[in-house]
Write a structure and sequence with these properties.
about 325 residues, alpha/beta, 5-stranded mixed β-sheet, 13 helices, about 5% strand, globular, metal ion binding, TraB/PrgY/GumN_fam, glycoprotein
Length: about 325
């Protein structure tokens, strides 16, 4: 799971998991899915050994939106594997606690103290707008299962004035109508972790919380302010109806369900932040956007993949008689 997905985890366990969606649900349209499970495309890679081990590419959306389109061979590989590894230990309360701690400003500091006044005021106005709109964004199904707007807003944005600006930026980008409507159902990674626990499989993680968190906190102050400002500009334009984002969660789900690993749209799953690089930016701001993009790619894709690869190799060598199932974000593999 990508690092910026983790501040959402505290809201992922609010409801019990439900039945998977029916075939033909939204997000599956407009691609040539084969009717037979055996002919569906797969995000499963086999490590040839005895017993075999597997890499499975996940996606960070409610599992009910994709489960019916995951081929039987992937589900069978999961069931047959005795050990399941994730990026982080999703069922350990320490994971949530540590991620929450790393998002906080130093003791005694508040956002109002560190942000430029105009950005702080715009941020506060936007969050007031979201809180006002959230009851209208909630679905009858969410309300029927006991998930209410005030509770959900506080679960996502509570204590926002104590958070580091980079995490507030990520939070703002997730507070949209589409994202709010999806809350209450575990994302695919978490669902697999819950299933592994239910089936009494041995589980593990290839990363520490700090390794996912610290790179984001490593952006310098001017880069974070630029990113937060761009995020607010995008959300303000969306509110005003003057901007339509070029990709949506629905696009992402469709491409995943179609098995389209090479699609550009899938790369957006690894970053729940706006695409800061665009031709309308002044030259200096474009340089800042490129620096942020290069830094995050280096720290959260290249270095991270190399680190994870070494740990996977060590596990396979240490336990040659065990079958592993490694479930990692598809866009980071």
């Amino acid at each position: 799971m990508s690092p910026w997905s983790w501040f959402l985890l505290q809201t992922l366990c609010l409801l019990p998991t439900g039945a998977a969606s029916r075939r033909g649900a939204p997000g599956a349209a407009n691609c040539e899915l084969k009717p037979q499970q055996s002919k569906l495309n797969s995000f499963l890679w086999t490590i040839k050994r005895d017993p075999p081990s597997y890499f499975f590419g996940t996606i960070h959306v409610p599992y009910t939106r994709v489960w019916d389109f995951i081929p039987d061979n992937s589900k069978e590989a999961f069931l047959q594997s005795s050990i399941v590894y994730f990026e982080l230990d999703l069922t350990d309360p320490y994971t949530i606690s540590a991620l929450t701690s790393c998002q906080m400003l130093p003791q005694g500091e508040n956002l109002q103290d560190v942000l430029p006044r105009d950005i702080y005021c715009r941020l506060k106005r936007h969050l007031e707008y979201v809180k006002l709109m959230m009851p209208l964004w909630m679905t009858p199904d969410q309300r029927g299962k006991g998930l209410y707007a005030d509770y959900l807003f506080n679960a996502i944005a509570g204590n926002w004035e104590r958070k580091r600006p980079v995490w507030v930026m990520l939070m703002v980008n997730s507070l949209t109508e589409v994202d709010i409507k999806s809350r209450g159902v575990p994302v695919l990674d978490l669902f697999l972790a819950q299933e592994a626990e239910r089936l009494r499989k041995q589980t593990g993680a290839v990363e520490k919380v700090e390794e996912q968190c610290h790179p984001l906190n490593g952006l310098n102050f001017s880069q974070v302010i630029f990113a937060l400002n761009q995020t607010l500009l995008q959300q303000e334009s969306l509110r005003a109806g003057s901007l339509q984002i070029p990709y949506t969660t629905e696009d992402l789900i469709k491409h995943y369900n179609c098995g389209d690993l090479s699609s550009v749209i899938l790369s957006h799953d690894s970053s729940q932040v706006p695409n800061f690089i665009n031709a309308t930016l002044p030259p200096q701001e474009r340089i800042t956007a490129q620096e942020i993009d290069s830094y995050l790619r280096r720290e959260l894709i290249y270095k991270r993949n190399e680190r994870i690869g070494k740990r996977v190799k060590a596990l396979l060598e240490e336990f040659p008689d065990k079958g592993f199932f490694f479930a990692f974000g598809a866009a980071s593999q």
